[in-house]
Predict the structure.
Amino acid sequence: MNVVVVESPAKAKTINKYLGKDYKVLASFGHVRDLPAKDGSVKPDEDFEMSWEVDTASNKRLKDITDALKSADNLILATDPDREGEAISWHVLEVLKRKKALKEKSVQRVVFNAITKKAVLDAMANPRDIDAPLVEAYLARRALDYLVGFNLSPVLWRKLPGARSAGRVQSVALRLVCDREAEIERFVSEEYWQISADLKTPRNDVFNARLSAFEGKRIQRQTIGKAGEADVIKAMLEGAAFTVDSVEAKPTKRNPSPPFTTSTLQQAASSKLGFNAKRTMQVAQKLYEGIDIGGETVGLITYMRTDGVQMDISAIEAARDEIATNFGDRYRPEKPRFYSTKAKNAQEAHEAIRPTGFERKPEDMKRYLDADQFRLYDLVWKRAIASQMASAEIERTTAEITARNADKTAGLRATGSVIRFDGFIAAYTDQKEDGEQSDDGDDDGRLPEINAREDLAREKINATQHFTEPPPRYSEATLIKRMEELGIGRPSTYAATLSTLQDRDYVVIDKRKLIPEAKGRLVTAFLQNFFERYVEYDFTANLEEQLDRISNGDLAWKDVLRDFWKDFFAQIENTKELRVSDVLDVLNEELAPIVFPNREDGGDPRLCPTCGTGNLSLKLGKFGAFVGCSNYPECNFTRQLSADSVNRSDAQLANEPKDLGNDPHTGEPITLRTGRFGPYVQRGDGKEAKRSSLPKGWKPDDIDHEKAMALISLPRDIGKHPESGKMISAGIGRYGPFLLHDGGYANLETVEDVFTIGLNRAVTVIAEKKAKGPGRGRATPAALKELGEHPDGGAITVRDGRYGPYVNWGKVNATLPKDQDPAGVTVEQALALIAERAAKTGKGKKAAPKKASAKKAPAKKKSAAAKATTTKTTAKAKKA
């Protein structure tokens, strides 16, 4: 008997079918050990000794493997063919050694780039040992990320409250986004003019030619900067005679791009399919692990975490056969195409992403796939098949034209392209980000017949005004491309890095563009001023190169850690004496143009608009940074520091109250303001002024006098209850819109209901709430599944709540992960979730009441699951 360990249960099921009854395939469910999220997990003073921890769920997986080994002869480690996969195999092996579960059993490592029967059987026939340099590169990377995250993040918490975390790659990616935003803000638009002529041939065909020279001077895109210059040239051309000097038709070829790497797949999926990086990798994972096709589970694409651009020779031959069959012999080049990677050091999985079988055409697979799977598979198949197709043959025609008017001359140029043979374009056309046409497309229109030395008639002279535009904000795709160009991070980490930036509220995505939030701008400014080296592009890229050299066996991993830690620790120590006021002084200066925008009246942008004597400054509070007055508490002026306030400057965001009119009953002014906790409306002035925050979903731009009065007037009396005779009122509270009657509350569905609900409907809502019993409007859901007793007493159940399925123990409710089937939850998983939730909320510290029992209850002690999981989850947010 042979025990095979893979990462996912889906993969295990498929591979078990391929290998047969002499093999038992088990899943590790990813990593089985990790560094505990607490100080001391990596010990620089003990030669970077690392303390690993096995969580509760992984303990069960390892026990299953250990039990299976008792009746087995061999252990085969078949985790993914990359650095992380190698590390998982190493972790499994280390734990089994400590358990003394191996004894004299043979241990082998196998890798396969695709989950097909041939690929798996070939791998089994060619085992190897665990790649030690690859594991050491993983250990170095994990230690570096831990040391940065667990030493730099606490500095941020102390010196920049509200900041969540910093990370070795995460912070540099954030700097890219912030640098681009600053570049956009500094950009000064410049005017320029372009001039062209609509000309007619003797055969009455009209085409357009652009001005290329005037009076012997070459004209480029921004040469003509003023309207006066454009008018002079336009007037000259309107009286000119036009003659064709030359016509040149030059054949060119365009070659296909290589098959996808992780990075290029994410970029193409973004521009063509609208997928973010995380979604792309989720769908690709499904295609890799296997799809049920007519009763057989088959992996449709090769491994999707790779820098490599080359396909296996057998795949190349299969692609060439498919090209001849589907497109014709002319589309198959005489020789196969071979590509080389441009990456500094292509890692681990060297083959590009391709279909496992080119005979499985997308249209044939469509019925087995969901919409997203089909679209991504279609993209992979077409790009891979195109990479082996013939070049496109294109004829590019250029006509040079002279315009003469008296003693003045001008040159014009007309260009056009014609695809004579489409070649690979028949299968796949590359596009740049945001829909711009790439070199694979046809940028120029087709020209009519134009002959040298013939005269042309003038139809119209066009002079158009343009303005230079700032560089575009990054999209996920263009940021990934830029990170790859700089050598920052690795393809397998891009999706996680981008998700972290959003989860930390450092960036927001608007219309597929990455916009830094105020918090992100502050963190970047802090790091650039106090930890500059560690957010430098070159330094981060050089560190990545060292990690790659470790994986090649060219560097000792602990030497790299020692060199890094020496300087990094010194920098951390230097910040201990740093005062928050020093930080704020630096940030006030660094971010002045955006935090203190110029005032419309030309006044001092840092002068308080309320008291007129205090100076505005950044201040740090429990919820992050905001702008406040130096005369506090005498002056209580504050302004929220949000993405809007950082990226746009207008009267409202500068906290100059927007006048909405007067209260018709009291005559007091109604104003719209922005404070530390967001926008709000206010009636009157001073401490006694009535204020009301804008409800969720209400935008400041939409607030008028009527809406402001409605908010200020809350709570709204609806009428007396017909039975009790007591008033029913509607309002907006901490938990949203509500009805209040006789001291009891009932939730309303929308904010609009607060202003529109009538008496009859209000009575019905209150009756429905009463029927459901106590609580915030919902009865406790019935249990979907009973899991048994908690070690500390009390039943553990699975229930379906308002926000999805969850596990319940006493007062502790822990939401299930989105991909977790409620019916498949085990007691070990439930214990882990409960322990994590209890650690966050403080609930569950006292045991739930135990059921009566004849036996004496044992002394209470914290369960192993609760201990392990609580330790692991207390500082997850510290991770980079």
About this structure: The domain at 140-182+474-578 is CATH 1.10.460.10 (Topoisomerase I; domain 2).
